[in-house]
Write a structure and sequence with these properties.
Number of strands: 7
Largest sheet: 7 strands, mixed
Shape: globular
Number of helices: 13
Strand order of the largest sheet: 3-2-1-4-5-7-6
Structural class: alpha/beta
Strand content: 5-15%
Low-confidence stretches: 1-6
Helix content: 25-40%
Radius of gyration: 20 Å
Order of helices and strands: HHEHEEHEHHHHHHHEHEHE
Length: 306
C-alpha cells in the first residue's frame, strides 16, 4: 500500500496539543508517536534554530516520513524506552513531551497488517513488524483463561469467557489465521445491532496484548516524570478509557493506580499539575472531517517541582 506523509495519518487535535506544550523556541521536545510526522512538523515550525525535537516510532513504515531538518532526531524505538534514549543522546531534561496514543489511520487502512476487520488479512497487528508475537499466535496458543482475561480487561467484553471458549473450540478444528477466520468464529456471539462495536473491542484487546500497549504507556509516562524539567509540559491524546485512566492517574498521583501520596505535613505529592480541569475534545468540525477524532481526549499537564 503506497502512502505519503500527508495520507499516512491525519493528526488529531493538532493545534490544541502543540499549543499545550507552550513551546520555547530554544527548547528540547519529544514527540513519542511520530507516525506521519504531523505533530512533529508543527512543533518544528515553532522552534528556533537552537531548539531540538526527538521523535519516536517503532514502525518501519513511519521511517518513510522522516523529516530532513538539523533540529530533528528520529528514534527508531518503542516509546517505553524514552528515559534510556534521552540518556543515550545526553539529554538530561526536556521542555515538553507530546503523545498521540492509539492506532494511526495508516494502520487501519493498511490491508496487510490485520488491524482492521474491514479487510481479510493475516492476523498480525504488530506495530513493530521486526519482533514480537502476532495476534494469530495469541489466538492459537493462549490458554482459555488467559485469553478470556485479555478480552475482558483490554476489550471490556462482558461475554469474554464465552468468546474465549468458542475460539478454543474453533482452533482445535482449524487454526485461526486471518481476520476473516476470526470474524467467522465469533460473529454469532454478538447481537446484530452491536456486532461492529463488539468486534472492534475484540480487535482492540488483541492489539493491546500484541503490542503490550498498557505496559509501554506506563513506562513512558514514568520516564516522562524523570526527564521533564520543572514547568515542562506533558500533552497526551487518548482514545479509550483504559489508556485515559492511566494518563489521568499518573498526572494526578504519579502512579497508574491513582494512589495519592502525602508528605509529612499532609500535602499531596503530585508530579504534575493539570493545566485545565476539563479534558479537551475535538470540535464538531474536526469530528466530521476526521471520524477517528470522535473518541479523542487531550490532557495537558505541567511538571511540578521535583
Amino acid at each position: 500500500m503506497m502512502t505519503t506523509a500527508g495520507t499516512y495519518h491525519v493528526p488529531v487535535l493538532l493545534q490544541e496539543s502543540v499549543d499545550g506544550l507552550d513551546i520555547k523556541p530554544d527548547g528540547v521536545y519529544v514527540d513519542v508517536t511520530f507516525g506521519g510526522g504531523g505533530h512533529s512538523r508543527e512543533i518544528l515550525s515553532r522552534l528556533g534554530k537552537n531548539g531540538h525535537l526527538y521523535s519516536f516510532d517503532q514502525d518501519e513504515d513511519a521511517e518513510k516520513n522522516i523529516l530532513n531538518d538539523s533540529r530533528f532526531t528520529f528514534v527508531r524505538s518503542n516509546f517505553r524506552y524514552l528515559h534510556n534514549w534521552m540518556r543515550y543522546y545526553g539529554v538530561e531534561q526536556i521542555d515538553g513531551l507530546l503523545a498521540d496514543l492509539g492506532v494511526s489511520s495508516h494502520h487501519f487502512d493498511d490491508e496487510t497488517r490485520g488491524f482492521s476487520f474491514r479487510f481479510d488479512a493475516p492476523l498480525d497487528m504488530r506495530m513493530n513488524k521486526r519482533s514480537g508475537i502476532t495476534a494469530a499466535e495469541i489466538l492459537n496458543n493462549y490458554e482459555e483463561e488467559r485469553l478470556a482475561d485479555i478480552l475482558y480487561i483490554y476489550g471490556e467484553l462482558k461475554n469474554a469467557r464465552k468468546i474465549a471458549t468458542t475460539i478454543i473450540k474453533a482452533r482445535n478444528e482449524k487454526a485461526i489465521e486471518t481476520t476473516g477466520d476470526l470474524i467467522q468464529v465469533t460473529e454469532s456471539l454478538f447481537q446484530r445491532e452491536r456486532e461492529k462495536k463488539e468486534t472492534a473491542k475484540l480487535f482492540q484487546a488483541l492489539r493491546i496484548e500484541v503490542n503490550h500497549e498498557m505496559e509501554a504507556l506506563k513506562e513512558m509516562l514514568y520516564g516522562a516524570q524523570q526527564v521533564l524539567r520543572e514547568g515542562g509540559r506533558l500533552s497526551v491524546i487518548t482514545y479509550h478509557s483504559l489508556e485515559d485512566r492511566i494518563v489521568k492517574n499518573i498526572i494526578k498521583a504519579g502512579n497508574a493506580e491513582g494512589k495519592v501520596r502525602q508528605d509529612f505535613f499532609g500535602r499531596t505529592e503530585a508530579p504534575f499539575r493539570q493545566i485545565s480541569n476539563k479534558v479537551i475534545v475535538p470540535n464538531e468540525e474536526e469530528q466530521l472531517r476526521n471520524p477517528r477524532s470522535r473518541s479523542a481526549k487531550l490532557r495537558v499537564a505541567e511538571r511540578c517541582k521535583m
